[in-house]
Design goal:
Radius of gyration: 33 Å
Structural class: alpha+beta
Distance between the termini: 124 Å
Number of helices: 1
Shape: rod-shaped
Number of domains: 1
Strand content: 25-35%
Helix content: 25-40%
Low-confidence stretches: none
Mean pLDDT: 90
């Protein structure tokens, strides 16, 4: 008699070596992908922080330029002169009761002798420069009649937060003193 023949059984599972190999490959792929995702998220966060700083700085600078542009002139003088009381590298005062200054890392605007309005925080650099009609820089500190030749005002401001720094510089012509005004 013949013995019954057995056929080899079909494999239904992976061997331990195959399973470990697949897990190792998936782990390597996952670590590369997670590194890319984290780098993209970090880059997005940095770009978002820079954009927020730039937006804050642009808004504050636009407000400063608007106020400085309309510094009044003394209508009783000939030639016309601005009603600027004093200028220092960190402040400008005009019309007896208006000022723009930096104090303790904050830029403040005072209009008509009122309460200071906070324009910027976390200020690391704030500089005010003045220029005459020939675009020549005037001295760092001016007061009284030394302010008469001022025709342009330049403001440079830098703000910093969480290791990010943004800087903006803007120059404005005093409107009442421009040719043809």
């Amino acid at each position: 008699m013949n013995a019954p023949r057995t056929t080899p059984r079909a494999r239904h599972a992976f061997t331990i070596v195959e399973a470990v190999t697949v897990i190792s490959i998936l782990g390597a792929i996952g670590s590369v992908i997670s590194g890319l995702v984290f780098a993209a998220a970090r880059s997005y966060a940095d770009a978002s922080a820079s954009a927020q700083l730039q937006a804050e700085l642009s808004t504050a600078m636009a407000r400063m330029m608007r106020e400085l542009r309309y510094i009044p002139v003394d209508p009783n003088s000939a030639p016309l002169v601005p009603r600027i009381d004093s200028v220092t590298p960190a402040s400008i005062a005009w019309n007896s009761n208006n000022s723009l200054s930096v104090n303790g890392g904050q830029v403040q605007l005072v209009l008509a002798g009122g309460a200071p309005e906070l324009l910027l925080q976390n200020v690391t650099v704030f500089t005010i420069s003045t220029f005459d009609q020939d675009d020549a820089a005037l001295g760092g500190t001016l007061a009284g009649s030394a302010c008469f030749p001022v025709r342009r005002v330049e403001v440079l401001a830098s703000i910093s937060r969480n290791g990010k720094t943004e800087t903006l510089r803007s120059r404005v012509f005093l409107r009442g003193l421009m040719a043809g005004s």
